[in-house]
Amino acid sequence: MRSLKLEEIEEEYKDLWPGGHWRPKECKSRQKVAIVVPYRNREPHLRTFLHNIHRFLQKQQLDYAIFVVEQLGNKLPFNKGRLTNIGVLEAIRVYPFDCIVFHDIDTYPENDNLLYRCSTDPKYTKHFSVYLERAKYIERYAEFVGGVLALTVEQLRKVNGYSNDFWGWGAEDDDLNNRVKLANMSFTRSKTNISRFRNTIHERDSGNAPDPCRRKLLGLTRQKYLTDGFSNLNYRVESINYGKLYTHIKVD
């Protein structure tokens, strides 16, 4: 995996629309896909991600755009769930996306045959990154849905998005899995080599220490998932830049 300068990557993908949007000229994609990436202090990883993911998505002839949602400042712990919720709401303001792929910035698909699409059956959501390089390609645990996953906009509305309450590392994806089950849906995953993902090796962000309340919060999903998520999301957008390679959303 190469990490080029942004200008070099832009030269490689000259046919992108503003905001990192692309769609095939020869056919109509079955789904409109927003790639939502929560982000803070990972600029080299962002360049590597953009260089690799555009090629992967264009080979699949997807109608897609990339939204990088950055949490400004280092005073508060990183809140992945809140950032992904913001990314969804900002994405559907600008284009009629029907499928949202949530993507960790340090995770890359190895197999081009892994289709970044949502399930056409409303009862099923998708988890793509089953086998991770950093876990030696061993399935972490049966309920693991972190890394890369896909839900339709309607499915996300049904579960009220992610929880906004997980500050720091851990458990927001487990909480989402609980929400999916409470809404009478379930994650599907392909347990084959098609679901192998590489990882960028890095030290954990000092502002992303494990959330000491995560286990307690996980036990409250049933009581609070309909009131914690899209429905109570408060945020201020500091800026939105529709750059060549991605839409960059900076939030407080």
UniProtKB/TrEMBL annotation:
It is a single-pass type II membrane protein. GO terms for molecular function: galactosyltransferase activity; N-acetyl-beta-glucosaminyl-derivative 4-beta-N-acetylgalactosaminyltransferase activity. GO terms for biological process: carbohydrate metabolic process; glycosphingolipid biosynthetic process. Gene3D superfamilies: Spore Coat Polysaccharide Biosynthesis Protein SpsA, Chain A. Keywords: Glycoprotein, Glycosyltransferase, Membrane, Signal-anchor, Transferase, Transmembrane, Transmembrane helix. Residues 126-202 form the Galactosyltransferase C-terminal domain. Residues 3-119 form the Galactosyltransferase N-terminal domain. Pathway: Protein modification; protein glycosylation. Pfam families: Glyco_transf_7C (PF02709), Glyco_transf_7N (PF13733). It is found in: Membrane. SUPFAM superfamilies: Nucleotide-diphospho-sugar transferases. One of its GO terms (cellular component) is Golgi apparatus. Belongs to the glycosyltransferase 7 family. This is Uncharacterized protein.
